[in-house]
Amino acid sequence: MSRHLFVFDHPSRCIVGAIGEYPDQSYYLQVTQDEQLISVELDALQLRLIAKRIDQLLDDVGDYYNLRIPHRSRRLEDLSPLDMPLDSEFLVGTIGLAWGEEESAIILELLAFTAGDFDESFMMSDDAEYGPDTVRILLHPQLARQFAHRTTVVYTAGRPLCPLCGEPIGPEGHICARLNGYRRDLSDVIDRLTDYQR
To answer: InterPro entries, per this entry (predicted)?
Structure first.
């Protein structure tokens, strides 16, 4: 099967949105450039990691290259929903993230899910004739910060936050880093915190 490579080097819009009610939501990344619009489906963990890694990468790039990178965003500029009709190109399996020095932008690459072992030579490659379909997006720092912030907002929507680590708690609970990976009943943790504060 021949590979389709969709490149968005100057996207006018790049957002994440959710369809459905929590906890049965489906998450989509949608990117637009000129008249081209592509949507791909992701899972909740992928969303969380993308947002964290983009912010972390921008912080590191700013420090390493001594660049003026916008601070982490605190308010959303794009509150509009996903464009409809929603037609997902593919389910994302592998995600690549890098800093493009020439472009002064984050390169976000989303590869279609494939069964079996993944060949890393497909990542950030224009040469592969065969392989998983790929969406490559260049996000300049301001757009990248907005994208990361909206992704975090979408991911955490409807979920209570852990009072210890600040991460969202799903219906099955969550493994809290502050509790060294142990699962505990949240009400027990809150009771202990309340007793400690008295």
So the answer is: DUF3090 (IPR021441)
CB-based contacts of 90: which residues, under 8 Å, 6+ apart? 40, 41, 112, 113, 132, 133
Q: Tell me, what's the pLDDT at 134?
A: 94
Using the CB atoms, write b or e for 8-39: b if 16+ within 10 Å. Answer: beebebbbbbbeeeeeebebbbbbbbeeebbb
Question: Does 146 share its domain with 193?
Answer: no
The answer to whether residues 94 and 25 belong to one domain is yes
If one counts the domains in the chain, the total is: 2
3-state secondary structure of 58: helix
Rounded to an integer, what distance in angstroms lies between the CA atom of residue 111 and that of residue 90? 9
Q: Rounded to whole angstroms, how far apart are CA atoms 110 and 164?
A: 32
DSSP state of 102: T
Q: What is the side-by-side order of every strand in the sheet holding 13-19? A: 5-8, 134-139, 105-112, 88-100, 36-42, 26-33, 13-19
Residues 116 and 182 in one domain: no
User: Are residues 111 and 167 both part of a single domain?
Assistant: no
Domain range spanning residue 184? 161-198
Q: What is the pTM of this model?
A: 0.79
pLDDT digits (tens, 9 = 90+) for 28-37: 999 999 999 9
